[in-house]
Amino acid sequence: MASLERVASKLEERKKEASKLRRKGERELKKARSLLRRSTSGLATVARKVENAREELSDVAGVLTQKLAQKESIERLVTTAKDRVSKEKEALEQALQELDFASSDEEKQSAQSRINSLNQHIADLEDEIKERDKTLRKITDAIDDIQSNKSKISGKIQKQTKVKPTLQKMLKESKKDAERFSKQVVVKAKQEESAKNTLIKVKEKLEKVKAQKRKLAAKKRSRKAKPKKRSKKASKPKRKSAKKTATRKAKPKKRSKKASKPKRKSAKKTATRKAKPKKRSKKASKPKRKSAKKTATRKAKPKKRSKKASKPKRKSVKKSRR
């Protein structure tokens, strides 16, 4: 019993320790799985961000190429306009010289009209150059913004690509940890279950032993209490069954040592018996006459002693008188 109790206590401790380790493993497994989820989602986010940034960068690069092309075209137009202005100015100087050297009115009038047209043309070209310069400045500012945006996007991509290896490392480690802790949890759960089952069996055995002890104690108490009950019922003797009495009658009684030797009657008692004749019983008052045949056979065959032969029969008064 004591050994079973010790085994039960040890199994209880083992079960508690296994459950404690199992819970610890489950917590660690939960952490590893959450880290695995975070690293997986982080990698997916990084990949998505990099993809979006690359798409944006490609769009920005397309816009930048367009703006650069516009800038180049405007610059070409401005240069051509400036070349034309310089040419027109040379033509204007020539027309002015012709006006100075003109002798007739017609020559003067044609030179003057030519000067006026050249001035108008130069003014138009200068206005065009001014407009082109404004557009060129706007395009240049846009190009600067696009280039700065492009550099930012490139920085984001570089940053995300730097984070990616760290997340990949975390993912691998968390996978390994999750597998290791899941195995530990399974092992500890099995240990806990086996300890639990063994503890149940030991407790059942312990309960059986306790029940047996209780039964034995109850029997001992009942044995101690039984003699007292018998003393109360001793006044009322039990009636023997008819079967038992029949078997007892069937079995012949053994002669006792005292019965084998008949007691000698004292002289005083014999004298008193002779002095006082016995009263005849009702049956003895009328003695039956024995037949001659029976008397002859009785004399020939001596009588067998009965079981009660140890006690000699009292002789009747008739025989004593004879």
CATH topology of the domain at 2-220: Helix Hairpins
Uncertain ranges: 231-235, 256-262, 265-272, 274-287, 290-297, 306-313, 315-322
Query: How many strand segments?
Result: 0
How large is the radius of gyration?
73 Å
Determine the structural class based on helices, strands and strand pairing.
mainly alpha
- Percent in strands: under 5%
Major sheet size, sense and barrel closure: none
Q: Look at the structure and give the CATH class of the domain at 2-220.
A: Mainly Alpha
Q: How many helical elements?
A: 7
- Fraction of residues in helix: over 70%
Terminus-to-terminus distance: 88 Å
Summarize the structure.
The protein is mainly alpha-helical. 82% of the residues lie in helices and 0% in strands.
Task: Write structural notes for this entry.
The chain has 322 residues and is mainly α. The protein has a domain at 2-220: Helix Hairpins. 82% of the residues lie in helices and 0% in strands. It has seven helices and no strands. It has helices at 2-101, 105-233, 242-250, 257-260, 267-275, 292-300, 317-321. The protein is rod-shaped and about 175 Å long. The chain starts with a helix and ends with a helix.
